[in-house]
């Protein structure tokens, strides 16, 4: 069977076999509802508690700070809207390059009387200091800046950013979904610097889809998004997704134990890939910034990204054009717009995100496929045409 | 709900279950709790002429911890004078049975049952009987 | 050989049917793509699976796949339906009608809507647990915008008259939401004929996985909702968030099996339930809670008078059943559903919910009957209330030293 090479690990990752085997009992005989008081229920409760401790330990938090949700989107919505509900509308600041599941809730608040500031970034995607300080002077009540960007992989120095925000009384949140597993992530350290909440998700680290956590400093009052039953200390009602939670627990442990070696190995692959891309004349985004070890974001002038991605798919390489989102939006990525990339070039953006299974041969193979394709595409007037990918 | 081994033991093998006839000499009854609260304890003591509790029996409508608490106090009050029995405190019951915080009220109820039974005894027999 | 404890708590959650688990497996392994990935085969393969599952969910309830929105479970579906509709139609009015015996996911959501400025009427039910249509009619006001009534009650299994309620709501232009978490696979649901606008579903009550549910949102006439989860704009903007493909595939297969097998399965389960009821009916002072006729076949909720519920659960620990409703609190509260039926406290305190299911056997039911006889007898020997009743004392005349 033809198995394409998967190079889209920032979109989702395969479940690690160790994780899957830990989950399997909870998809068969161990099926109890953790709220039930009989042995089936108690066994499920113990499994959830253990996973809670595992996730907590993996991110440097206490088990009581872990709130399980159905995914990163829900965790981010829960923090942004839940924290805002405790206040009268005021100033809210999020970086301009946040994932839509932070940006959209923030925009929703803006429609409810909040003043939203989208914090600008420099040409490499790093938060700009002066505009940030200027917004802090307005005493924002909520600040959310992602630890690592899903498209560019750019890492922000949250410990440095959080301190002045906390000083003006802001509740600081960071979306660490892309950072966790690829970088050391320590909530205790971030918390000491003023970060009050953090989101991490299972399916980006070899865990299952359908579960994520909001790590929440217990001093923060939060209004739940989902009412009914009072699960998760009343902050998130709904029967626990036991199998997925168990999987997340194991995946988080694996992620931490592997992180250093994993990052080193992927960085070596990334550097090889970047050398190759430069020699093929690609423009690499956020080159000068500190980035995730697995993420490369690039484009060729005058080559349409969706068309190139379609060619690569047929050649057996699964990569992303822009961010993996549900909408087939034709406009270029908001992240590249924030960086100041010209729309023509941004439309060509391709993201390669490496992961567990990738090898040096995959990188060489991709470069060869690109070499063969680009030359061909340069001679095609591809731009502005509907692409294969958006037509699915 | 995880119960301690001692609670389970008293629940599985409750001591001194039953009733004395109220007409029997020296018998006094304490009934505490209410069905609406989910616990009703009936503790009966049989006091000898020397003021020593010779026998005790109970019946309890309630959770395992309530049953265990009342079973335990029937053992504890036997052989005690009524004054000594009045010294039994709910904290001792809770400690002996390793009751979790949500079940402390069961031990309080058991202490109240002792007090109620002794009050009934005093009412029937007058203060003199106490020192006997 | 019986495996103990015997699971008789299918309304709390069901095991995943092995056929469902098998269908899920590839999506936990090699077919791991994000269904939102538009640029490669991994994504397309997942998206196709998601859409096939959507068809299956729609088919069970005779709806269009385009009317099915994935959620993380019935709690989220109920929250999305009630908050989404109330907020969208707030301009038309502020009044919401629901029932006191609804699931907490509906009741707690209504409480929150009250804090947001809506007015909610919580209707009484009859002692059979059913909503009286006259009571319902009388509760409607010109500014009523939303009604929420569950199809099958989770504790007592009674089936509410949603066809009639839907007709009344449609005539008055009121949005009608139905929590059907406990209903799928147990009662036939035909959304082409029912005048229901929004309906919540759960997978894990119907032999699918936990962590996945769906909300039916009617297209003709079109029902609008304010989204509650914002982000990538998944699910046509109704509900953002990466779709958990394996769970969705599991729900689709679970609902497909329900559609194919429910008639035969319900007959089998009804016979077992009736066997259980008949087997315990010679125990004195046993009361069935809720209407026995207008009820799903797998539910039997009974009160054993003068026996306290928690000690009863302890005594029958070889049976995995629930007392009151499965909630997150450590202490046992008398069920609010039974209290709404007007049950006295000592009966509400002593109720046990038996819910039978796909894997329940006759042998298990017989074991349960035997155990109940034995343990009820033992606990009544321990019960001062039972003794008083045997002595002819009317408990209502007793002055309790209330604590």
Can you write the helix and strand succession of chain B as a string? HEEEHHHHH
| Radius of gyration computed on alpha carbons of chain C | 22 Å
Order of neighbouring strands in the sheet with most strands of chain B: 1-2-3
Q: Give the largest interface pair and sizes.
A: A-C, 76 and 75 residues
Shape of chain C: globular
Q: Between the first and last Cα atoms of chain B, what is the distance in angstroms?
A: 45 Å
Category by helix and strand content of chain C:
alpha/beta
Work out the helicity level of chain B. Answer: 40-55%
Element order, helices and strands of chain C? EHHEHEHEHEHEEEHEEHEHHEHH
Kindly state the percentage of residues in helix of chain C: 25-40%
Can you describe what's shown?
The complex is a heterotrimer of chains A (392), B (132) and C (403). Chain A is of the alpha/beta class and 392 residues long. Chain A has 13 helices and twelve strands. Chain A has a seven-stranded mixed sheet with strand order 2-8-7-6-5-3-4, sandwiched between helices. In chain A, strands 9-10-12 form a three-stranded antiparallel sheet. In chain A, helix 1 runs antiparallel to helix 8, helix 6 runs parallel beside helix 7 and helix 8 (242-279) crosses helix 12. The radius of gyration of chain A is 21 Å and the shape is globular. The two termini of chain A are 22 Å apart. Mean pLDDT of chain A is 93; it is low at 323-327 and 382-392. Chain B contains six helices and three strands; from the N terminus they run H-E-E-E-H-H-H-H-H. The termini of chain B are far apart. Chain C has 403 residues and is α/β, with parallel strands linked by helices. Chain C has helices spanning 18-28, 41-60, 74-88, 104-115, 133-139, 162-172, 245-280, 309-315, 336-340, 345-348, 362-382, 384-390; strands at 6-7, 68-71, 95-99, 119-123, 144-148, 175-179, 198-202, 213-217, 286-288, 299-304, 319-320, 351-355. In chain C, the strands form three sheets. Chain C has a seven-stranded mixed sheet, sandwiched between helices. In chain C, strand 3 (95-99), helix 4 (104-115) and strand 4 form a beta-alpha-beta unit. In chain C, helix 1 (18-28) runs antiparallel to helix 7 (245-280), helix 3 runs parallel beside helix 4 and helix 7 (245-280) crosses helix 11 (362-382). Chain C is globular, with a radius of gyration of 22 Å. The chains are: A alpha/beta (392), B alpha+beta (132), C alpha/beta (403). The interface between A and C is large, with 76 and 75 residues.
């Amino acid at each position: 069977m033809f198995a394409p090479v998967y190079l889209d690990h920032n979109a989702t990752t395969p479940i690690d076999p160790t994780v899957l085997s830990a989950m399997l009992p909870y998809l068969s005989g161990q099926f109890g509802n953790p709220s039930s008081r009989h042995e089936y229920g108690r066994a499920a409760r113990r499994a959830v508690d253990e996973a809670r401790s595992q996730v907590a330990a993996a991110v440097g938090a206490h088990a009581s700070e872990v709130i399980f949700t159905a995914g990163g989107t829900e965790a981010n919505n829960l923090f942004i809207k839940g924290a805002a509900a405790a206040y009268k509308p005021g100033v809210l600041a999020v970086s301009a390059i946040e994932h839509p599941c932070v940006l959209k809730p923030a925009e929703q608040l803006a429609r409810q009387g909040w003043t939203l500031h989208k914090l600008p970034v420099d040409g490499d995607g790093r938060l700009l200091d002066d505009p940030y300080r200027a917004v802090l002077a307005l005493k924002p009540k909520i600040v959310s800046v992602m630890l690592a960007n899903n498209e560019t992989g750019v890492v922000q120095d949250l410990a440095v950013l959080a301190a002045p925000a906390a000083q003006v009384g802001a509740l600081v949140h960071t979306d660490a979904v892309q950072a966790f597993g690829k970088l050391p992530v320590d909530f205790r350290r971030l918390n000491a610097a003023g970060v009050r909440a953090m989101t991490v998700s299972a399916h980006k680290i070899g865990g299952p889809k359908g579960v994520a956590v909001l790590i929440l400093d217990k001093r923060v009052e939060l209004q739940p998004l989902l009412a009914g039953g009072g699960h998760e200390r009343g902050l998130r009602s709904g029967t626990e997704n036991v199998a997925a939670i168990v999987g997340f627990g194991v995946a988080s442990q694996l992620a931490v134990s592997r992180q250093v070696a994993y990052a080193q190995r992927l960085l070596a692959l990334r550097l090889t890939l970047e050398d190759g891309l430069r020699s093929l004349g690609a423009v690499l985004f956020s080159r000068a910034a500190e980035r995730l070890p697995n993420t490369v974001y690039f484009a060729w002038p005058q080559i349409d990204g969706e068309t190139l991605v379609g060619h690569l798919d047929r050649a057996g390489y699964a990569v992303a054009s822009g961010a993996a989102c549900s909408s087939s939006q034709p406009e270029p990525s908001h992240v590249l717009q924030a960086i100041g990339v010209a729309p023509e070039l941004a439309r060509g953006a391709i993201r390669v995100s490496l992961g567990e299974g990738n090898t040096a041969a995959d990188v060489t193979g991709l470069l060869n496929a690109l070499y063969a394709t680009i030359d061909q595409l340069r001679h095609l007037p591809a731009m502005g045409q509907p692409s294969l990918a958006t037509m699915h | 709900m995880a119960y301690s081994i001692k609670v389970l033991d008293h629940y599985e093998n409750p001591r001194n279950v039953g009733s004395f006839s109220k007409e029997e000499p020296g018998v006094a009854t304490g009934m505490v709790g209410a069905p609406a609260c989910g616990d009703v304890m009936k503790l009966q003591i049989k006091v000898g002429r020397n003021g020593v509790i010779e026998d005790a029996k109970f019946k309890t409508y309630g959770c395992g911890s309530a049953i265990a608490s009342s079973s335990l106090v029937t053992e504890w009050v036997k052989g005690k004078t009524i004054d000594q029995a009045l010294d039994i405190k709910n904290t001792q019951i809770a400690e002996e049975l390793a009751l979790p915080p949500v079940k402390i009220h069961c031990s309080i109820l058991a202490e109240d049952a002792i007090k109620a039974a002794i009050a009934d005894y005093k009412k029937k027999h007058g203060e003199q009987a106490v020192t006997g | 050989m019986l495996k103990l404890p015997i699971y008789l708590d299918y309304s709390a959650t069901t095991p995943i049917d092995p056929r469902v688990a098998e269908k899920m497996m590839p999506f936990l392994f090699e077919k791991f793509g994000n269904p939102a990935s538009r640029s490669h085969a991994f994504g397309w393969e997942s998206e196709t699976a998601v859409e096939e599952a959507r068809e299956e969910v729609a088919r069970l309830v005779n709806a269009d796949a385009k009317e099915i929105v994935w959620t993380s479970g019935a709690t989220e579906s109920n929250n999305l339906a009630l908050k989404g509709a109330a907020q969208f139609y707030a301009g038309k009015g502020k009044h919401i009608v629901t029932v006191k015996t609804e699931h907490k996911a509906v009741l707690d959501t209504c409480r929150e809507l009250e804090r947001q400025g809506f007015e909610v009427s919580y209707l009484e039910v009859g002692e059979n647990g059913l909503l009286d249509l006259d009571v319902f009619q009388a509760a409607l006001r010109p500014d009523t915008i939303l009604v929420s009534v569950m199809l099958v009650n989770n504790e007592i299994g009674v089936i509410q008259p949603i066809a009639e309620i839907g007709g009344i709501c449609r005539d008055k232009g009121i949005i009608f939401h139905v929590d059907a978490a406990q209903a799928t696979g147990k009662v036939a649901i035909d959304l082409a004929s029912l005048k229901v606008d929004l309906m919540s579903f759960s997978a894990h009550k119907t032999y699918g996985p936990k962590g996945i549910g769906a909300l039916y949102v009617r297209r003709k006439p079109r029902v609008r909702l304010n989204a509650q989860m914002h982000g990538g704009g998944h699910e046509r903007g109704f509900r953002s968030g990466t779709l958990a493909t394996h769970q969705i595939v599991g729900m689709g297969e679970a609902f497909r099996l329900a559609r194919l097998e429910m008639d035969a399965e319900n007959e089998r389960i009804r016979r077992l339930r009736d066997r259980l009821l008949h087997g315990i009916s010679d125990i004195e002072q046993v009361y069935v809670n809720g209407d026995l006729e207008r009820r799903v076949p797998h539910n039997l909720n009974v009160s054993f008078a003068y026996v306290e519920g928690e000690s009863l659960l302890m005594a029958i620990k070889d049976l995995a059943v629930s007392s009151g409703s499965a909630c997150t609190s450590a202490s046992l509260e008398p069920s609010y559903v039974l209290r709404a039926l007007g049950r006295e406290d000592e009966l509400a305190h002593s109720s046990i919910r038996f819910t039978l299911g796909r894997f329940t056997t006759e042998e298990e039911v017989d074991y349960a009957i035997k155990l109940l006889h034995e343990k009820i007898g033992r606990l009544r020997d321990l019960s001062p209330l039972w003794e008083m009743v045997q002595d002819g004392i009317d408990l209502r005349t007793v002055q309790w030293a209330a604590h």
